[in-house]
Amino acid sequence: MGGRVKKMTAWKAAMRAVPGILLAAFLTAALPARMVLAAEGTMVEESTQRIEQVYTNLPEIMVYGYGLDTVTGQNTAAYLGTEELTWQGACSFRDSGEGIYLYVLLDISGSMPKSYFKEIKNGILNLQERLGENDRLVLCTFGEEVRLLADGSQKTEEMRAILDTVENHDQKTLLFEAVDRVGAIAAKTGPEECRRRVLVVISDGEDIAVGKKMAQEAQETLKEYGLPLYGMCIRDTGRDNINSFGEFSRMSGGGIITFGAKEGSTVLTDLYDRLYDCTELQFSSVSNRVSNEFEMFALKTNDGRDTITRQVLDSRWIPDRIPPVITNAAQTGERQISISFSEPVNGLGEISNYLIMQGDTPRTAVGAALEDGNNQNVVLTMESDLTPGTYTVSCKSMTDQSMEKNPLTGTASLYIAETENAADKNTVSDAVSRSIFSRVIAEGDGDTAGVWFLIFMALVVLIIVVAVKLKQTGKQEENRKEEVKKEEPERVNLKRFFDLVIRMDGELPKKARWEIDRSLIIGRADTCDVIFDDPKMSRQHCVLEWNGAALYVNDLNSRNGTFADGKRINVKTELKPGNTVRAGSVEITIRW
């Protein structure tokens, strides 16, 4: 708190005279029931499942948390605001290949005991030595002023020299100013550098206990930047300090760690190891569109029985330079045309946005209905029945739902073939029977025997005509088959075996070998070549195509999309040996 003078109270001095064991027992008994004070150098946890940080860079969303190692795509649902997100996978953070940027804020006021301060400086140096290749350590001190001592580029010996200059004798502290400054520094770190950023404050917690109003303002800063804060509170401090420091830390997504003087040299490296033991969950949104407002992220686990939430500022996105296209147009009724797009688009329900041409003649649409309630498929109802011919479908004033609002491009063609209507054609037998029976009716008023004779003759003629017709039809069909057989080119055998590793969420990887002859359709429907019982997969989700020289994957207008090596595809995409295809909750690595 700016300008506040810290004084050593008589109560604190007296308490330092009490043996450490008695002091720990006193603090534990005095804490509220919801918080149990852990042993020195350990973290106080409130629940088994906790979200530390949600990093959004739409359409990508990364969730870092604890107690989430059993979470899978089958038992989990995630939401950003009202949008349900698509599950992409999960892994241990240690296996993710990512790093952590740690921003350490060190209290250098005179109220920090010398015995602690020396060991804490050793602990910072130990942390510098422990860092991995992708990790960074930024050091900032706060006392009478906020000073940035190390920007993350320093080596171990440089950090040693910096720490040799640090002393704790200031009489004022500017903790909340330090949080503001370091938060702004951390916010400038782009996703290409690091997505996981953590603040660590080492203090006695007095600032937070006394300056509650400023603590709330600092909490808003942490929420805006999406930064979790871990409070490292010395054991030799007041009960209210520990409680306030702990509440402040947990609200940000972090936690409180209490430690004694002897643990000062290891408490930071212990936290570093804990941070790497978290679980990383990966989700995606339907587009990169952001609201630039705080949105509630909700994670429903255990088949919806448990819900964990965290507010996140929805402000970062990955640029989208791919325009939407019409992927398919098909007749679905006497007056209906179904149109599919490569991604959700705006303006789907506006009839005036469609231009339907039959040859050079425009056709009028009178209705537009969204299929399945989404913005990726629409059914147009035409003013009159669709007649045979070639139709061209184009659109105007339609864009994708990205931040860039890329305009829709391209057209689609639809061919409706002539259909033979047997009811409209008169056969020889029809003509003969009509002629004879007309005579029967005309002469029916005369001799009865003559009438029956004419009926008998009509039946004889009808049988002869039908027999001749069947014989001619059979011969024509035989000749046609022979002609087709002569004209049909010999089919080239393109069969090839492909080795696969199939991973489904919550299951062990399985090896398989598939034979592909030109194409292989993957989905949930019984008509597919390969069937997966996966609710995240569409009935006909995607297709693998082999032309004898190269293997391709193409999405079949699936609801959740098809991904090649983590990138959503909108067009036919060539695969290389070792590439991975993801459809729904299934991940397939292909080699040949």
Automatic annotation (TrEMBL):
Keywords: Membrane, Signal, Transmembrane, Transmembrane helix. Residues 101-275 form the VWFA domain. Pfam families: FHA (PF00498), VWA (PF00092). This is von Willebrand factor type A domain-containing protein. Residues 520-569 form the FHA domain. It comes from Hungatella effluvii. It comes from the Bacteria. PROSITE patterns: FHA_DOMAIN, VWFA. The chain crosses the membrane at residues 449-470.
